Amino acid sequence: MRHTISILLQNEAGALARVAGLFASRGYNIESLTVAATPDDDVSRLTLVVFGDDATVEQIIKQSAKLVDVIEIGELTRKEHVERELLVARVEGDEAAIDACLDRFSARLLQREGPQSVVEYTGSADAVDRFLDALRAAGDVADHARSGIAAIERPLVTA
């Protein structure tokens, strides 16, 4: 099963390595990992996506919570949350076909130089996959970079 885990940790050298090392030491390949600062300069948000059985991932989360750098950890998989991923791609091909693809997905053209275009798209991981497939149908994708998943829990609805 796919698990999305959000971790707030101290923004200190080695903190990321300790958390990622705990997952790796249990034999889990990290499918996606993003880290960025939060409004508090001393805290970073780390978002991990791993595939594994529920019991083992739960145990790793409990062990991660004991690390001195971890402030808060939680699995978002079964909670209401928002996930987004950024794709930046360099594509070559018919300008009209590429523009039609951008329009269909509400993607952005960042730069165009001759037959090459640099484009960006933000969406769920599945939506990024669909956009990339459509972009490949519109032209030759020479290169692309994906940010990995950033996720945050939805606000609680109060009546």
Automatic annotation (TrEMBL):
GO terms for biological process: isoleucine biosynthetic process; L-valine biosynthetic process. InterPro entries: Acetalactate_synth_ssu (IPR004789), Acetolactate_synth/TF_NikR_C (IPR027271), Acetolactate_synth_ssu_C (IPR019455), ACT-like_dom_sf (IPR045865), ACT_dom (IPR002912), AHAS_ACT (IPR039557), AHAS_small-like_ACT (IPR054480). Pathway: Amino-acid biosynthesis; L-isoleucine biosynthesis; L-isoleucine from 2-oxobutanoate: step 1/4; Amino-acid biosynthesis; L-valine biosynthesis; L-valine from pyruvate: step 1/4. Coiled coil: none annotated. It catalyses: 2 pyruvate + H(+) = (2S)-2-acetolactate + CO2. GO terms for cellular component: cytosol. GO terms for molecular function: acetolactate synthase activity; acetolactate synthase regulator activity. PROSITE patterns: ACT. It comes from the Bacteria. Keywords: Amino-acid biosynthesis, Branched-chain amino acid biosynthesis, Transferase. Transmembrane segments: none annotated. Residues 4-78 form the ACT domain. CDD domains: ACT_AHAS. It is an enzyme of class 2 (transferase). Belongs to the acetolactate synthase small subunit family. Dimer of large and small chains. Catalyzes the conversion of 2 pyruvate molecules into acetolactate in the first common step of the biosynthetic pathway of the branched-amino acids such as leucine, isoleucine, and valine. This is Acetolactate synthase small subunit.
